[in-house]
Amino acid sequence: MSVPEECLGCDLYTAGGGGEERKEKRYRGVSLRTSGNWSSEIMVPRKVRKWLGTFKTAEEAARAYDRASIRYRGKTTKTNFPLEEYPEIEPQDLLNEAAGT
Predict the structure, then answer these.
(1) Helix or strand or coil: residue 83?
(2) In this protein, which residues make up the domain named AP2/ERF (predicted)?
């Protein structure tokens, strides 16, 4: 199928389907809100979504996700930044808080 040269939408789409490159790096658990702030959330055991908050930068939101991920899933979890940057977080902290101990 050939596209006629007078097609008005032909210049809007690129060959790779990639469009424009992202200006911000994508982080796990982070999304941009319409207000321009960054939000962070995580899926916890039993597939419950846990809201972590809104942040001024994507990096702050990504670090909030990392802390929650380590607490819920332990030191073997996938994070946005190296685990060595979070030595103060123990996986059981959040579980103990939830149990009231």
Answers:
(1) helix
(2) 26-82
CA count, 13 A, side-chain hemisphere, 74: 2
Q: Is 99 helix (H, G, I), strand (E, B) or coil?
A: helix
Q: What's this model's pTM, rounded to 2 decimal places?
A: 0.66
CATH number at residue 37: 3.30.730.10
Is the confidence at residue 6, as pLDDT, over 70?
Answer: no
Identify the bridge partners of residue 31 per DSSP, sorted by sequence position. 39
CB 60 within 8 A of CB 39: no
In the structure encoding, which two tokens stand for residue 52, read together?
A: 């972590």
Question: What total of structural domains would you count in the chain?
Answer: 1
Q: Quick check: is 90 in a domain?
A: no
Tens-digit pLDDT profile for residues 14-45 = 454 454 444 556 999 999 999 999 999 999 87
Half-sphere exposure of 32 (CA within 13 A, CB side): 9
Query: Does residue 101 lie in a domain region?
Result: no
